[in-house]
Amino acid sequence: MIGMNLKCHAVLRLVAQLSYGLLLIAGRTHGDVVVIANRTPEPVEFSARVDDAVSKTVKLAPGDSLPLFATTGVHVRTSAGDYAAPEQSLPPNTAYAFTPSVAGGAPTLQPVGLGESTSATWPAAGTASFELPEANVITVKIVVDDDEVRQRRAWEPVIRARIDKVSAALEAHCGMKLRVVAIEEWDSDDSQRDFFQTLGELEREVLPAPADVAIAFSSQYDIASGRVHLGGTRQPLHSHILVKERSRNVLEPERAELLAHELGHYLGATHSSEPKSVMRPVIGQGVQRVAGARLQYDAPNTLLMSLLAEELRQRGIKDVGALTPETRRRMQEIYAAINPTLPDDPAAAQYVQLMGAAGARPLIEDTAKILQQIVRVAQLKKKLVNEAKDQPAPTGDQLLELYVRQAALAAKQVRRENAVRAFILALGIAFDDSDSLRKLPLASAAIEAIEPEPRRAERHAAFADMPTLSMRGRDDLAKHFMVSAHLVALLGSEPARGAGVVKEVFDSNGGSGFSFADMTANRAGIAFAVAVLKERLTLDDVARTFTVETFMPSVEGLSEGLQQQELTERFGGMGDRRLQSELNRIEAAVSSLPVYQQVSPDAAK
Fold first, then answer.
1. Which entry of 329, 384, 519, 532 is 20 to 30 Å from 241 by CA?
2. d(CA 482, CA 496)
C-alpha cells in the first residue's frame, strides 16, 4: 500500500497583512445550508423538513455527510425505537453529526462546533432563490501532457470516467457537478523537476477557456509515497489544477480520490483529520482498496464546499475575492476551528489568511478609488484657484468640506458593501498629513497597498501651496477628527476612544500637552464615523450637508497644552472622575449637535 500526501497549496498567494483587521458584515442574499453527518459505524435514519416542504425520511451511511439547503429553516427529528424526539430547528450554516451514545443507546445528534461567533437565525420569510443557468456545473478542460504513453483512445475514457465519479461525489456533498467541455494535449518541459514550476508552466501555456478550470494529468512525475506533492492548485476557484498521473502501483479508485481531494480544494475544502475523508493530508493508504469504499467528504469540508457552491449558483462568482463578507467570515471561522485538529499541517491556517486577504482586497481597491478622487478634486481646485488670482482663496475649512463631500459622492461609485467603510478609511489617509496612521503596525501594510509612495507624493503635491486643511480654523483638529474616524473603521469606537485619551496623556509628558480641544475633535470624528457606518447618516446626507460647523463643535474655552503636573493637579490621571467628567462634557457637546439628533430620511428607508 502506498501513502500519498498533498501539500498542494503551499504556494497560496497570500497578502495576509492586507486583511487590515476589518470585520465586514452583510445581509443574507442567498440560501443557507445545514450539514448532517454520520460519525457512527452503522447507518442512521432521521426525518428532515426543509423550509415549508413535507418532512422526509433520510438514511445516512457511515461516514457520509449530507447538505440540506434552505432559505427559512431546517428541522430534524430523531427517533429511538418507539420514542420520537421533538423536532429540532438547526441554525443556518452549521454542521451536526450523529455520534455513538455514551450510554450505549441510539446515536445522538450533536453540533460539530465550527467556531460560530454569533448565534445565526433564519429569516422569518425567505425570498425565492434565484439560480443562474447552469450554475451548478463546473466546466472542465482535460489536459494531458506529452509524457502520457497511452493513446488518446485509451486514456480519454478512463479520465472521463474518473471525472464522472468525482462529479457524483461533489454533487452529493455540495450540489455541484463537473462537465468536460474540452480536451487538450500539452508539451510540458521534461527537464523540470519542481512540481510548482510545472504548475506555473501550465498556467502560462494552457488557457482554461472554454472551461472554468483546466485539470492537467501529468505523466512527467511519478506518484510517490510519503509527503510529496501529488497535486496542486493555488487557491479555491483557481483556473488550473495539476495532478500526477504516472504509477503502476496506484489503483484507479485512488486516482479518483486524488482528483476528489484537488477539486475539494477548488471548492474551498481544507485538510481534515478524519481518517476516511478524501481531504485527509495523506491520501491513499489503502482506504479506497476496501470493498465498498466511496468518496466521502467530512462534515466541516462539506459545509465549506456548500457555502462556496451557493455563491457560485446564486451569484456566479469567479474568485474568492467576490465572496460575500458573510460567507467569507463564516468560512474563515470554520478554517480557524479546523486548524488545531491538525497542528502539523499548515493548510487550514493558510486558508484563514487567504480569506482575510480576499476580504481586504476589494475594500483596499475601493478605498484607493475614493482617495484618488479626493486627489483629483484637489488638483482641479488648485488649478482653479491659481487661475482666479483676483478672487479670495478658500479657507482650509472650506477646502476640507469640499473634499469630504466629493469623497462621499465617490463612495457611491464603489462596491455597495464597502462604500461607507472605504469612505471613512480614505478620509483618514487623505487628511493625515503627519502619516501617524502609517506608523501603526496594524495599518501600515494596508495603507501602503491603498496608497503606494508615488500616490502619496501625488496627494501631498495636490495639497501643497494651498490653505492648510482645517476644522474650526485649526489643522490639528482636522487631523484628530479624521484619524479618529479612521480608527473607528479599523478598530471600532471604543478602541478609538481609548487611543485618543492615551495620545493626549502621552503629549502631557513633555510634548504639546494634553488638549481638550483635540479630545473634542477625537470624539466628534468618532461620532461622525459611527453615524456613517451605522447608516444613521447616508453618503447622500454627507455629500449634501457636510460642513465643519455641523459636525465639529466649538472648542472655545477648552483647556489645552496641559503638562503632566498641571493635568494631574486639575483633572487627576487616567480613571480620575474629574477627567472623566470633563470628557463626558465634551461627549455631551458632540452628541447635542443637531445632525446627530435627526434620522436621515434616506437611512430610515
1. 329
2. 11
- Each residue of 236-252: pLDDT tens digit? 999 999 998 877 778 89
Residue (of 247, 308, 257) closest to 280 by Cα position: 257
Name every residue whose Cβ is closer than 8 Å to that of residue 395 and which is 6 or more positions away in sequence. 467, 470, 473
**CA–CA gap between residue 214 and residue 523 (Å, rounded):** 54
DSSP 183: E
Residue 4, classified by CB atoms within 10 Å of its CB into exposed (0-12), middle (13-18) or buried (19+), is buried
Q: Is the same domain home to 303 and 227?
A: yes
* Same domain, yes or no: 167 and 275: yes
Tell me the CATH number at 246. 3.40.390.10
Cell of 29: 442574499
Q: Band of the pLDDT at 189, cuts 50, 70, 90?
A: confident
pTM for the complete prediction?
Answer: 0.62
d(CA 307, CA 310): 5
The structural domain count of the chain equals 3
Range of the domain at 99: 20-112
Cell numbers found for residue 565: 503636573
Residue 132 is assigned to a structural domain of this protein: no
Q: Do 304 and 201 share a structural domain? A: yes
Structural domain contains residue 601: no
339 CB-contact burial (10 Å; exposed 0-12 / middle 13-18 / buried 19+): buried
What are the tens digits of pLDDT across the range 31-55? 799 999 999 999 999 999 999 899 9
C-alpha cell at 400: 476640507
